[in-house]
């Protein structure tokens, strides 16, 4: 049994904490005292059915604190899962929170292995090792989906550890043993290669979203049946029928920032495709907004701001980009989002009552179709063909 600290109680941190606390002593460190209290009370501060059920029903060796000294005392591993938001001014991830954790751990518990799961620029981990003059830092990317983070931790598609060594294998074995998918493939790489794996994987997913969105744009402009085209294209087994549902663009916490960070890493490398993926997302939102405006609505309702079903995250959701474009063209925009308990969102009225929202809205914009809108289907604007987040 190991002693493990996890810095950050968000999706990644809490999913790893719950998974590992089934067999190890785990302490979550978070600056949000309300989040700390929730974890200690065995309630989930984030929307994830698996995490909620495990906190409620499973015996876990888990506690949370806001005291770094308490969290790091005598631990074997520190997993870093703090946010690395994209900073448009520097054209890079803001990695300050990761650096702070690494500095603290190096000072308080220098023998602990620091495992970075926060997404970072290519080359960051080895640079940080040089800066802190320590070899005890490894990058191990996460591949979790919002709303199913614990499920994806327990049943990993792959485990990647950025170190070719017995220590790297031991870390991989620790993660594999905590999972319920003991046959998951394990890959030991260099830290820099592991960082690149994370960014290229997410950029490929963004490219796939962008491809099917541009297919849909073409079909819409030329009055073709998008679904027939997608069904036919996806019969090719090399392409497959996954991740092919048109949307308003890729969004959420990971894909927008990861594609931009990868593009920044290409600053001295010839490329065309990575820039096109980033630009395609902007073009898609432009098309969606223009397509809505062709209906000449005076009031447009935005039904749900969350990126996907089962998530409580609005960050960088694609519908917000559409919303901003409509407002810039002088259209009144109202919002229905049950997770919002404020009178306005970016100066748009929030309407809590669904019936009133339907009545007030001349066009209802919904990234994914919802049964709650079935009675006003003639008002609904969506590019959703398959009714799933895929």
Query: What's the CATH H-level homologous superfamily of the largest domain?
Result: NAD(P)-binding Rossmann-like Domain
Rg result: 22 Å
N- and C-termini, Cα separation: 38 Å
Strand content: 5-15%
Family: Belongs to the UDP-glucose/GDP-mannose dehydrogenase family.
InterPro entries: 6-PGluconate_DH-like_C_sf, 6PGD_dom2, NAD(P)-bd_dom_sf, UDP-Glc/GDP-Man, UDP-Glc/GDP-Man_DH_C, UDP-Glc/GDP-Man_DH_C_sf, UDP-Glc/GDP-Man_DH_dimer, UDP-Glc/GDP-Man_DH_N
Organism: Coralloluteibacterium thermophilum
Catalytic activity: UDP-alpha-D-glucose + 2 NAD(+) + H2O = UDP-alpha-D-glucuronate + 2 NADH + 3 H(+)
Care to describe what's here?
The protein is α/β, with parallel strands linked by helices and 390 residues long. It has 2 domains: 3-139, NAD(P)-binding Rossmann-like Domain (Rossmann fold); 198-381, Rossmann fold (3-Layer(aba) Sandwich). The protein is built from 14 helices and 16 strands. The chain has helices at residues 11-20, 33-40, 49-57, 68-72, 96-108, 124-132, 149-154, 166-178, 191-221, 226-234, 255-265, 273-293, 318-328, 354-360; strands at 3-7, 25-29, 62-65, 77-80, 86-87, 92-93, 113-116, 137-139, 159-161, 186-188, 299-303, 332-336, 344-345, 348-350, 363-365, 380-381. It has a 6-stranded parallel β-sheet with strand order 3-2-1-4-7-8, with helices on both faces. The longest helix has 31 residues, at 191-221. The chain starts with a strand and ends in a 9-residue tail after the last strand.
């Amino acid at each position: 049994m190991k002693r493990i600290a996890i810095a950050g109680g968000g999706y990644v941190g809490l999913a790893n904490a719950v998974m590992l606390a089934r067999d190890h002593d785990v302490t979550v460190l978070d600056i949000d005292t309300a989040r700390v209290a929730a974890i200690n009370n065995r309630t989930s501060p984030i929307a994830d059915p698996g995490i909620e059920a495990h906190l409620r029903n499973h015996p876990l060796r888990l506690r949370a604190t806001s005291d770094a000294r308490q969290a790091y005392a005598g631990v074997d591993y520190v997993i870093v899962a703090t946010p690395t938001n994209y900073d448009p001014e520097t054209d890079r991830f803001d990695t300050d929170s990761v650096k702070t954790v690494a500095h603290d751990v190096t000072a308080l518990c220098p023998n602990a292995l620091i495992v970075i799961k926060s997404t970072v620029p290519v080359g960051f981990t080895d640079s940080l090792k040089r800066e802190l003059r320590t070899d005890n830092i490894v990058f191990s990317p996460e591949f979790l989906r919002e709303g199913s983070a614990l499920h994806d931790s327990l049943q990993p598609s792959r485990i990647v550890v950025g170190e070719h060594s017995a220590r790297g294998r031991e870390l991989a074995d620790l993660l594999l043993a905590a999972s319920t998918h003991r046959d998951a493939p394990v890959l030991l790489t260099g830290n820099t290669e592991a960082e690149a794996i994370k960014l290229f994987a997410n950029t490929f997913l963004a490219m796939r979203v962008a491809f099917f969105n541009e297919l849909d744009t073409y079909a819409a402009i030329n009055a073709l049946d998008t679904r027939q085209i997608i069904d036919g294209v996806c019969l090719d087994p090399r392409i497959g029928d996954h991740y092919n549902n048109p949307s308003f663009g890729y969004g959420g916490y990971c894909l927008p920032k990861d594609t931009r960070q990868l593009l920044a890493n290409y600053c001295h490398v010839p490329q065309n495709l990575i820039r096109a993926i980033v630009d395609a997302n902007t073009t898609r939102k432009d098309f969606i907004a223009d397509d809505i405006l062709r209906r000449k609505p005076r009031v447009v309702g935005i039904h749900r701001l969350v990126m996907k079903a089962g998530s409580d995250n609005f960050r960088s959701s694609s519908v917000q980009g559409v919303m901003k474009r409509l407002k810039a063209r002088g259209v009144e925009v109202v919002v229905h989002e049950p997770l919002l308990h404020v009178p306005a969102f970016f100066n748009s009225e929030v309407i809590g009552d669904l019936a009133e929202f339907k009545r007030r809205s001349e066009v209802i914009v919904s990234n994914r179709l919802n049964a709650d809108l079935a009675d006003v289907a003639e008002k609904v604007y969506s590019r959703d063909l398959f009714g799933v987040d895929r």
